[in-house]
Each structure stands twice: as structure tokens, then as C-alpha cells.
Amino acid sequence: MRLRTRGRRASFRKSGTPKLRMTSMMDILVVLLLFLLKSFVVEGEVMTPAAGVALPESTSPELPEATLVVSISGESIVVGDKTVARVATVEGESELLIPGLAATLSLSSQHTADIRERTGEDLSAPLTATIQGDKATPFRVIEKVMYTLSQGGYENISL
């Protein structure tokens, strides 16, 4: 009995390192490929709501286009990832124009004009923006954001 055990060990040492089985690795790669193909979005960019914003249900069958997004949460007004104003401050002011938002929109419209010029797009095309407002946002705040967007040159505003 002892000789057989040594014989098996000796034959294992002679054969060298065991070969890697490619079948299981190919199965894993196929599963990863199928997952990536399934998660690939053909329609383009998907609009996701900003943190802290509870959007109402949409019944529109059309997908939203990529635009400048102004998010209004319960506490702040955000463009991209930059907070431009506080909702409590905006709500308490009598002015319709929001200065912090207007300054950010000016920079954004200049950036869009530069991109349009470089890509050869029509410079006179209207600028578009999307407002993502929380369900509990007062209409007065949304009205001020819309006014500031229109003063900043954003003619097409989506909610």
C-alpha cells in the first residue's frame, strides 16, 4: 500500500505543473460579455435624478435628451455637482433673478457656445435646460429658477 502512494506522488512530480482548464474561464467570460451587452444603453444617456430629489412619475413615452440639468432639492439648487443657491434664501427674496444661478448659467452658455463653434453646430440654436424639482418644492422657487434660466438665454425649459 505504501508503494502505491509513493508511486502516485512520483508520477505527479514528473508530470510537472497541472494544466489550467480553459472551459470554466470561457464560461465566465461569456457570462460577463452577456451582462455587458444587456446593460449597454443604445438610446444614449439616461437622466438620473439628483440625490435628495424625489421626482414625480412620468408618463411620457419619449426619452429625455441630454441638456443642462438644474436640480432643486428640499435644501439647495444644484447645477451639475455645484450648489448655486439655497432654497430658503431664494424663497425669502423678492427678486426673481437668482444671482448664483445666473453666474453659473453664463459660464455654461459660454461653454456650450464654444463647443458648438468647434463642432460646427448652429450657434443660433436655442439653449435647452431641464429642471428636476422635488415634489415638495414651492412653485415660487421653480418660477424664479425658470425666470433666471430664461434671462440666461435658455429658451427651451423642460420640467
Model description:
- This protein starts with a helix and ends with a strand.
- A hairpin with a 3-residue loop joins strand 1 and strand 2 (76-79).
- It has 159 residues and is an alpha/beta fold.
- It is elongated.
- It has a 5-stranded mixed β-sheet.
- The chain has a domain at 68-157.
- The protein contains 5 helices and 5 strands; from the N terminus they run ααβββααβαβ.
- The chain has helices at residues 2-15, 22-39, 87-92, 99-119, 139-151, and strands at residues 68-72, 76-79, 82-86, 127-133, 154-158.
- Helix 4 crosses helix 5 (139-151).
Q: Describe the global form.
A: elongated
Helix content: 40-55%
- Tally of DSSP β-strands: 5
**Residue share in β-strands:** 15-25%
Rounded to the nearest angstrom, the radius of gyration is 29 Å
Which residues sit in consecutive blocks of at least 5 with pLDDT less than 50? Answer: none
In terms of structural class, how would the helical and strand content be classed? Answer: alpha/beta
Give the helices and strands as they follow along the chain.
HHEEEHHEHE
Spatial arrangement of strands, main beta sheet: 3-2-1-4-5
Compute the separation of the termini in Å: 82 Å
User: DSSP helix count?
Assistant: 5
- Mean of residue pLDDT? 76
**How would a textbook summarize the main sheet?**
5 strands, mixed
Write the layout of secondary structure elements.
Elements: H1 2-15, H2 22-39, E1 68-72, E2 76-79, E3 82-86, H3 87-92, H4 99-119, E4 127-133, H5 139-151, E5 154-158
Parallel strand pairs: 1-4, 4-5
Antiparallel strand pairs: 1-2, 2-3
